[in-house]
Design goal:
The chain is mainly beta. The protein has one domain (about 10-125). It contains 1 helix and 9 strands, in the order H-E-E-E-E-E-E-E-E-E. The strands form 2 sheets. Strands 1-2-3-9-7-6 form a 6-stranded antiparallel β-barrel. Strand 8 and strand 9 form a beta hairpin. The longest helix has 16 residues, at about 5-20.
Length: about 130
């Protein structure tokens, strides 16, 4: 019998890639690839020493793990990698970073087919 959840997850991934993503450039040193990514955000609240809550946000890029190919091989994101996103006449460069002592990315599903990569903005320039 077919795994209905796996089939549905595959269809959802293909639909997101085709209709709810944009092409970004993933860069590790001199190795690059174009990658179809949906854009997300992670919001974290931490309490300061004075009892106040500080909120921080990070841009997340979500896409198919198998499509992240560097130097001819499927790659896992690493801290320090860069993602370049062009919006209109502006190019944004985001750096992959770890969050709260965790990995710089996580898989979105149990079959590890989709990635969620956490980043911070490091550069803005004219495209």
């Amino acid at each position: 019998m077919a795994d209905l959840l796996a089939t549905a997850a595959d269809r959802l991934g293909a639909t997101l890639k085709a209709h709810a993503s944009q092409t970004v450039v993933y860069r590790r040193g001199s190795d690059t690839c174009t990658w179809a990514a949906s854009i997300g955000e992670t919001v974290r609240a931490t309490e300061t020493a004075y009892g106040q809550l500080e909120e921080s946000r990070s841009r997340d890029f979500l896409g198919q793990a198998a499509d992240l190919v560097l130097a001819g091989s499927v790659a896992e994101p690493q801290e320090g990698d860069r993602i370049e996103q062009t919006v209109g006449a502006t190019k944004y460069t985001w750096e992959v970073l770890r969050q709260d002592q965790r990995s710089a990315f996580r898989y979105c599903d149990a079959r590890m087919t989709r990635l969620r990569i956490h980043t911070k903005l490091v550069k803005t320039e004219a495209a």
